[in-house]
Design a protein that fits this description.
This protein is about 30% helix and about 10% strand. It is built from ten helices and eight strands. Strands 1, 2, 3, 4, 5, 6, 7 and 8 form an eight-stranded mixed β-sheet that branches. The relative contact order is 0.19.
């Protein structure tokens, strides 16, 4: 467990502004990247954490299925590419910003991930918290001419924010919704949508593994975010676990043709990935003339055979258990 920062406790409250600035400088929080690079506490290991062996999320209403994903291509999105593409933003100076402080240490209970809810709470207090703080700093704090102009990104008029998707009636919605800060009710088209998974239910190595059942598990999660992208008419999405993030693009005009990045592994890379995804999506708009009836591409070489006997832990074995069938309904509260 990481010891508390020197900025914590009553002494930090009584310290002078000059002392606070000195401590920030000692910690090295001078740029956005420094802030994202602040140490993350390691997760506590649990004996049953075996990726790919637990049950996977299935649609309770048959709204999406692994068969929907006909083609999965690779795309070259990675932390180094985002750092280069948006260098001016990652290198923005935030030394004196009140949000540029070390986060408080987490208790052990937050570091033991045994369910998707635990994974969501961890992301709430670490990765998403930092990315939202950076977005606030970038969009609200630039008064000097030497600072990068975030509003120069095409289509950006308000600060984006990652927040839980709002549920209206029975409509299935993403776990995370990157939208305009001014769009409180999420009525407008989002920039990015995402889903939170547990690492032992899903990980990026399941794809193209040569194992038919693993390929089905892999595409089942992709089908879920593909459904969200089609319903919200956005082109960018992600799947994130407590261990990694993958960025996902939908080929315009198609449903079921996705491009998936290599994994952003670890909380630092995940933070860079979420921020880069947001900046990239904010500068990309979906054509208003995209047809209502999207085309379906032909299956690729890795398209799996029909599903065989499901594992005993599969949700199909318990169709009446609401808790297992609706495990995607958990939400992040940021």
């Amino acid at each position: 467990k990481r010891p508390a920062s020197r900025d914590s406790g009553p002494l930090a409250i009584r310290s002078s502004p000059q002392a606070k600035r000195t401590r920030k400088s000692d910690q090295g929080i001078e740029t956005v990247l420094d802030f994202l690079n602040l140490p993350y506490q390691p997760l506590l290991e649990i004996p049953s954490n075996q990726p790919g062996l637990s049950s996977i999320t299935r649609s309770a209403s048959d709204l999406w299925d692994w068969r929907d994903i006909k083609q999965v291509d690779k795309m070259d999105h990675n932390p180094e590419g985002y750092l280069e593409e948006f260098h001016q933003f990652f290198s923005s100076r935030i030394l004196d910003h009140p949000l540029a402080v070390s986060p408080p240490p987490l208790p052990d209970i937050d570091l033991c991930i045994v369910s998707e809810k635990h994974a969501e709470l961890l992301l709430q207090k670490t990765v998403c918290w930092r990315v939202n703080a950076v977005l606030q700093m970038l969009f609200d704090s630039h008064s000097g001419d030497d600072e990068p102009n975030v509003y120069a990104l095409p289509g950006v008029s308000h600060r984006p924010v990652y927040s839980p998707g709002l549920r209206f009636g029975s409509f299935m919605i993403p776990d995370l919704w990157c939208h305009s800060f001014m769009d409180i009710m999420q009525k407008d088209r989002p920039f990015v949508v995402g889903d939170v998974k547990l690492a032992r239910k899903w990980n990026s190595s399941l794809g193209r593994s040569g194992n038919n059942d693993y390929e089905i598990r892999y595409r089942t999660a992709l089908a879920q975010v593909n459904f969200y992208m089609v319903k919200t008419r956005c082109l960018s999405a992600f799947i994130v676990t407590e261990q990694e993030l993958v960025a996902i693009d939908r080929v315009p005009g198609y449903s079921g043709w996705l491009k998936v990045s290599r994994p952003f592994i670890g909380p630092r890379s995940t933070s860079i990935g979420l921020l880069g995804l947001c900046l990239r999506a904010c500068s990309t708009t979906v054509s208003s003339v995209e047809p209502d009836n999207l085309k379906e591409p032909p299956p690729d070489a890795y398209y799996p055979r029909e599903e065989t006997e499901p594992p005993s832990s599969s949700t199909k074995a318990n169709p009446d258990r609401k808790s297992t069938r609706l495990n995607s309904s958990h939400r992040l509260y940021l």
